[in-house]
Write a structure and sequence with these properties.
173 residues; mainly alpha; 8 helices
């Protein structure tokens, strides 16, 4: 089921679909997950649509930042051991961003579906970025997404372009 909130790739992004498909076709294992099974284009497209849905719902964050300056740890004198443990766990959750519902692109990719499909979807995103940037070597979608000038719209366009590529050029069986 196609989510209507996912944008259609803009002309600039749509231009990268064929070159990215060519890059994927040069590597026959691009559509094969770590399990050794082929992941179909429709499976990858559904995964990328689900990632876009998650980021729309939970919110996107470029990267999780150090929040230590916002955390106040109370003085443990006079605290019981259970109270100290609760404070320690609450602080750890804050430091790990567990209280923040927003997701990075990487965390959304691996919190949606299975890791095999996430891996192949990552291959698709990397090929799009390689075609878009003209890079001659490997490109990391996570590094691209974490660049300081990246926006949520950039991420949405990448995901929509990836889903379109997967539908148009991915294996069907």
């Amino acid at each position: 089921m196609q989510n209507t909130t996912i944008p259609t790739p803009s002309f600039a992004w749509a231009d990268t679909i064929q070159p990215a498909a060519d890059l994927l076709n040069r590597r026959p294992r691009s559509w094969i997950g770590h399990s050794g099974e082929t992941i179909t284009g429709p499976e990858v497209a559904a995964h990328l649509d689900a990632v876009a849905d998650l980021l729309t719902t939970a919110g996107w964050v470029r990267t999780y930042t150090d929040t230590t300056d916002r955390i106040t740890i109370p003085d443990p004198e006079g605290m019981s051991v259970p109270a100290m443990l609760r404070t320690l766990l609450r602080t750890a959750r804050q430091l790990l961003g567990r209280d923040d519902p927003r997701r990075t692109l990487w965390s959304a990719m691996y919190q949606t579906g299975d890791t095999d499909t996430a891996h192949v979807a990552g291959n698709v995103l990397a090929a799009i970025l390689r075609a878009r940037t003209g890079a001659s070597g490997p490109v990391s979608y996570t590094s691209w997404a974490e660049r300081p000038h990246r926006t949520g719209d950039d991420i949405a366009q990448l995901l929509a372009t990836g889903a379109d590529l997967a539908h148009q050029h991915g294996p069907t069986t």
